[in-house]
Amino acid sequence: EKSGYKHFMAKEIAEQPTVLGEAVDHYISKDGKGVSFAAEGLDFTQFDRITMVACGTAFYACLTAKYWFEQLARLPVEVDIASEFRYREPPVAPRTLAIFVSQSGETADTLAALRYMEGKAAKILSVVNVPESSIARESDVALPILAGIEVGVASTKAFTCQLNVLALLALNAAHARGEISDAALGDHLAALRNLPGLMNHALGASDTIEALSRELAKAQDILFLGRGAMYPIALEGALKLKEISYIHAEGYASGELKHGPIALIDENVPVIVMAPRDALFDKTVSNMQEVMARGGKVLLITDAEGAKQAGDDVWRSVILPEIPDLLAPILYAIPAQLLAYHTAVAKGTDVDQPRNLAKSVTVE
Ligand code: F6R
């Protein structure tokens, strides 16, 4: 079943270009120029705002999508953790689209949050991997992420396939609301169809990441930094690392470092900087330099030109292909997963069945 891989997690990481490519083809029109959810009854001109609710990795997919919906479609988005949202009993404005993201579709807190939104939100949309799940059945619209069965407890391919569907929704919303032209939509969709090839390149960094993970495995604390839509990917990288390698890790928005966490930096704390060459690259580089000036060991994840601009003082680099800004979070999720995987293997932990964790959290 593991098809020659040592762990389900390794197999599921490697599968991503294939499953994501199939999911892209499923959702994009035959001519490759459009994306529509009209058949599912979703019309983004009917909504004034979006509330997204999920847990864990699915929550980080929602945090990423907030940047997309707000930047592309100019729709305000609120994102919350299901266990907080449900007990907070927040007021819900009319014309709110509620989006629930869940791989299993059975997470108790997410299901309870969905039930709270029934009769309050204008529409309830779920983004799930299991179409016959409770969350899918109780939604007005359920969109499958088409990742295929995910066995490893640490979510990998489900995360990138969740991001794919959320990116398509944001593009559809932006187009329907007149925020982007036909041509711009076509360009974004062409980039999305190109993404599986770039993901294959990113998987090619596995050997480099394996070698440096043997050193990361000695660390007690590791920080992940990112800005903009890379901030949720920093959070996801930290979650993935702690859940399977048991190394304490935290993700921070790069700009938040100087407000406290920089006190943690010394030569024993590796700092992993997720820095595609986007509009915020220079700002991230200057945060990185603050870390290096305090003796921090920086692992920089960027493209070839980014590595050149960052200079020679970084401890290690992982080089990814150049990527349009919109899709960087999906591509950069791969090295984050590989870092967690190889570090856990180096430590000898049970990668597919980490202690204390269950694949589907059906208790509150
Ligand atoms: C982390 C992980 C969890 C899940 C969370 C939500 O790798 O897998 O954080 O993302 O338990 O699960 P679903 O998506 O099934 O609602």
TrEMBL record:
A molecular function GO annotation: carbohydrate derivative binding
The SIS domain, residue ranges: 38-179, 212-354
Protein localization: Cytoplasm
Group of enzyme by EC: transferase
Keyword terms, alphabetized: Aminotransferase, Cytoplasm, Glutamine amidotransferase, Repeat, Transferase
Top-level taxon of the source organism: Bacteria
GO cellular component: cytosol
Keyword Cytoplasm: yes
Catalysed reaction, written as an equation: D-fructose 6-phosphate + L-glutamine = D-glucosamine 6-phosphate + L-glutamate
Biological process, per Gene Ontology: amino sugar biosynthetic process; carbohydrate metabolic process; fructose 6-phosphate metabolic process; protein N-linked glycosylation; UDP-N-acetylglucosamine metabolic process
EC numbers, comma separated: 2.6.1.16
Active site: K359 (for fru-6p isomerization activity)
Quaternary structure annotation from Swiss-Prot or TrEMBL: Homodimer.
Role according to the record: Catalyzes the first step in hexosamine metabolism, converting fructose-6P into glucosamine-6P using glutamine as a nitrogen source.
Protein known as: Glutamine--fructose-6-phosphate aminotransferase [isomerizing]
Organism: Pseudoruegeria aquimaris
Gene name for this UniProt entry: nodM
Part of the whole protein covered: 244 to 607 of 607
